[in-house]
Amino acid sequence: MKRFLTLTAVIEAATGLALIAVPGIVVRLLLGAEISGASIPLGRVAGAALLALGVACWLARGDTQSRTARGLIVAMLIYNIVATAVLAFAGISLGLHGVALWPAVVLHAVMAIWCIVCLRRSPHNETTYRTFVSSR
What is the pTM of this model? Predict the structure, then answer.
């Protein structure tokens, strides 16, 4: 879980900072499209949200035993599933293709699977399993 949180922190914080600083370039790389008007501040708000997720993951990386860290992993699972679906939909159904689109789809899918692995291996599940086995 610590490796997952550390890597997620770096990826999401970097992406968030890029969206805050140059949202047009990030959108062009992902979707091969230009943005203007209200899309620019909206992209920056999305960047702030990703930066916040990155900071939360960074701060939680040393406390992987807590229920809070487990909740953060669940939140990242939801985020990665939705990001995979939205980006794949953009590429398949909307015909938007940037050079970084499919690598981003694969990355989010892999991160979602990693979230599931972290949740299955969490100390909470191991304690429940040990309690179950010892009661038999």
Answer: 0.84
